[in-house]
Design goal:
72 residues; membrane
């Protein structure tokens, strides 16, 4: 099997490092989410819809451009 998951046993130092890294990432994610929530707290429903439509349109166009470039 190609995609078989291997059971890797971590030693104590690796386990501590993995826990610290995951806690650091969660802390940074929470801070970024709080920042974005504070920045967009006063947005109306219409503003959210426009932002979401723009995001989807922008990245959709980029992905289509990548696909066209890959096949030409």
């Amino acid at each position: 099997m190609i995609f078989r998951k291997k059971n890797v046993v971590l030693n104590e130092a690796q386990e501590r490092w993995a826990v610290r890294m995951s806690m650091w990432l969660l802390h940074r994610q929470r801070r970024f989410a709080d920042y974005l929530n504070a920045r967009t707290a006063n947005w109306s429903t219409l503003t959210w819809k426009i932002a979401l439509t723009s995001f989807i349109g922008l990245f959709g166009a980029y992905l289509i451009w990548l696909l066209v470039g890959a096949f030409s």
